[in-house]
């Protein structure tokens, strides 16, 4: 049981890092940044 408590967060961390790396290699950083800017501009009434 104690081993599971240690292993589960490590697995979740590795999977999340893998998904972040996949997103970076697919150049989705630019897409996310563009959407974030548009949401911010819409919130303040400019976009």
SS elements, strand count = 0
- SSE ordering: HH
The main pleated sheet reads as:
none
How many distinct domains?
1
Coarse morphology: elongated
How many helices in DSSP terms? 2
Question: Helix/strand-derived class?
Answer: mainly alpha
In the predicted model, the low-confidence regions spanning at least 5 consecutive residues are none
Radius of gyration: 17 Å
**Overall pLDDT score:** 88
Straight-line distance between termini = 52 Å
Measured by DSSP, the beta-strand proportion falls in under 5%
Helix content: over 70%
Explain what this protein looks like in three dimensions.
With 47 residues, the protein is mainly alpha-helical. The protein has one domain (2-44). The protein contains two helices and no strands. The chain has helices at 2-25, 28-44. The longest helix is centred in the first third of the chain and has 24 residues, at 2-25. It starts with a helix and ends with a helix. The mean pLDDT is 88.
Short description:
This protein has 47 residues and is an all-alpha fold. The protein has two helices and no strands. The longest helix is centred in the first third of the chain and has 24 residues.
């Amino acid at each position: 049981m104690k081993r599971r408590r240690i292993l589960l967060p490590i697995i979740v961390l590795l999977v999340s890092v893998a998904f972040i790396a996949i997103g970076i290699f697919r150049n989705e950083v630019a897409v996310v940044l563009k959407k974030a800017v548009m949401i911010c501009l819409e919130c303040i009434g400019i976009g």
